[in-house]
Fold this sequence. Notes:
The complex is a heterodimer of chains A (348) and B (360). In chain A, 71% of the residues lie in helices and 0% in strands. With 348 residues, chain A is an all-alpha fold. The two termini of chain B are 39 Å apart.
Amino acid sequence: MTVLAQLIAVTATMVAGGILFWFLGKNPFEVIRIIFWDPLFDENLSSYARPQLLVKAAPLILIALGLSLGFRAGIWNIGAEGQFIIGAIFGAGAGLAFYPAESAIIFPLMVFAGALGGFLWAMIPAILKTRFNTNEILVSLLLVYVAELILASMSLGLMRNPEGSGFPGSRNFRSYPSAHNAELIANTGIHWGVITTVFALAVACVLLQRHMLGYQIRLAGQAARAARFSGVNPAGLVIICLGISGSAAGLAGMFEVSGPSGQISIDFNAGYGFTAIIVAFLGRLNPIGIMFAGLLLALTYIGGELASLRLGLPSAAIQVFQGMFLFFMLATDVLVTFCLRWRSRMAI
Amino acid sequence: MKKRLFLAAAAVVPALVAGDAAMAQDKTKAGFVYFGPVGDGGWTYEHDLGRKAVEAEFGDRVETIYQESVPEGADAERVITHMALSGADIIFTTSFGYMDATNAVAARFPEVKFEHATGYKREHPNVSTYAARFYEGRAIIGYIAGSMTRTNRIGYIAAFPIPEVIRGINASYLWARKANPDVEMTVIWVYTWFDPAKEADAAQALIDAGADVVMQHTDSTAPQAVAQKAGTVWTFGQTSDGAAFGPKLRLSSIIDDWAPYYIDRVRAVMDGTWESSATWDGIDQGMVKIGEITDEVPAEVKAGALALKEAIASGETHVFTGPVNRQDGSVWLAEGETADDATLLGMNFYVEGLTGTLPR
């Protein structure tokens, strides 16, 4: 049933998107081929685009995995973007502090610092919620903007490249081998962040299926009162869920800043933390679903870029297309889960 | 080892260039990477006009491709690589934040020419940088602003505290003060190049603080719309004419004209004469232009502004001519001394008289 619903959603997106592209004066079949086919199979592009798919999808999946735990338990961490930024700052800071020393211990230290940064940033809404019963949605979201300001301040001040002629932005990790999250196997796009993501996928699967914590999370989400009666500590659950999702986002930020992005800069964050919320829901909060959702969304980003580049499509058209996709996915989901019944006015 | 590889690559480049020239009958493909949407009415819009001018100039001999709204960082690197893979011969990357990405891609595609706007890194023989001396234009509109303000308070919406923006603030302030010694300038940092909502908020805050002329170093036209609503506040068009947006209270505008440079560089690729270079052109070369000075501006102020423009173009007046002190009171330029380009390119201080501190 759900598989069928997904097929319907994909078909509906293709049709509605095709009509949109047709109205923009493009050949809809060509646009859709470029978005979904060319990045994977075009002989000229795929050797570059396929690895890029992993690079783009890995942080989305890693963050979404962390978020899905909390979302299942009804704990809404909307501020993964902020935890992503702080994780990047902590990770980059740990690396830059040792510049220019070369040692094998620097990178693991950065990984730890990145996770710690995201964890600490997520603890602010967690503690405020458990102590003062504040709303974690608002607090975590607003902390994103605080994190952005800290990021700007870091790239202009403390972490600014001393050899950068006064321009904002840190040293580039590309030119600092010990701290560089480089591609591990040439032309595969696989860096430590991708490996961590695969590991996190396995952990999430086991946790949700086999572990007591996974059971408690699911129970708290489905029946909060029942969960309390069965001995689940709600405050503890808030701390754990926000802590895990914060650490995951922080790790993603750290891998991004030391690898693909390369440096702390004023607008280094490209919305991964927000997009990951979409990935989590597209994947129905299920680890395997999240993996496919992340890869699929990354494909629409990369393919969409190619389409707008090759055919001169406005970037907004691609965003509308992505929006349609999400809309149809969630809409069919609702129709599968709930039954529509038309009632006569009298009955109301 | 790395160095040797690099030299080998450098030796290959001339051969490839010669090959390009032989194939000059083929279409030359020029790619443009934009930070904002092409319809931003400012920075990206002007670059896109330059792209269209290239198409108009060469007709069938050229094909242009572009990508709008490209975030800085990892995404930019991917977009630039896609352009190179799609067969672009020359790629213009039009935002400061594309600097490292441009150089990284250039290393992998030695046969493609890269042109990075407003940056300073040219790590490979196939990378050029280009920028405009916007501060020359800012001196002129600063002069107009200083002459026009009745509250003696000019508001300034600034994007990021980088040398380019600081230069603009200093140039505007120095020349506003020449026109009106009592003038004060309030700067608001919005930490974005393009965000209509933030820019509108900043404009409103400046107006509430008593500014009756608002200058901006951001790309949207939102501040003009806010000023229009306030009714008695003057603004300037930024990087583009802006005539369509604030017709009533617009005093003048700075226009970036990239078309001649783009046409030159694409022609150089066609002819096989392209070489890495660092270009920094101003009013003299026509890269920076002052838009129409509107009827809001009295005749004598207009005449003064035009005379200043002539003097800057002819080289008679340098925008930064001593005596000028730094904000902390120390001497920057002695009487009659002019600023050198190196200091200007790395400018990280306010001149004396500006209030507030530079964000760190």
